[in-house]
Amino acid sequence: MFKLPTSTLVNRKIPKVKFYEKLQANHQLKDLFTHQVDSIVWKHKLSKETIRLEPKDEIEELQVFELHLKEESYSLDLLRSIDKSIPYPILHVLMYEDRVKLAIAYKERNQANENRSVVRSYHESNWQPKDELQFEIILGLDLKAVYENIIRKLLTVKAKPEMDLVDVLERQSQIEKLTQECQRLEAKIRTEKQFNRKVDLNMTLQRKRKELKRMLKLDTEVNDSYE
Question: Could you tell me the pTM of the whole model?
Fold first, then answer.
């Protein structure tokens, strides 16, 4: 699946109660773990000791967790709770029956508590058959580059490698927000009865669509630059 060196292999099952204790989990969070997760396995640890890649900018390790699910659907609150409790980046390998998907958070070290993290956004692959997943993890000369390149590979927005990841994530966030606003306006226009109000909504929709088209054009230009 990942073709990582055996030196990175941990293959240790983590009891769910460990997360309850660390997070002081409430009843709702415990229910999420109980109803959605069958087991959690700490599969790999990428660090200077295991993969000979140097840490950089507080990225000292990168973990790979396998989450064996009880159903294909899951709550991001589940991943968010795991990510908040561990200060290192985690590539979540979500498994259900013979299918798999990947998810990783863009997160930063909590300045008030170095053993916790602040999650900014999640980036996921689609579900696919487990035996078809081929994903190269080790792309980069240090652990920060490896982490950022995993996120880049899962982004829907394309970007040149030299473009700062924070800027790329901001652009993706803007595209997602504009897409949602357009969908919301389209739904309102369909149900609006007053003609004048419908005209106003349609004018707003056209402005949003124009802005979205401009943002998406940047992606097209990036794709063209690689051809």
Answer: 0.81
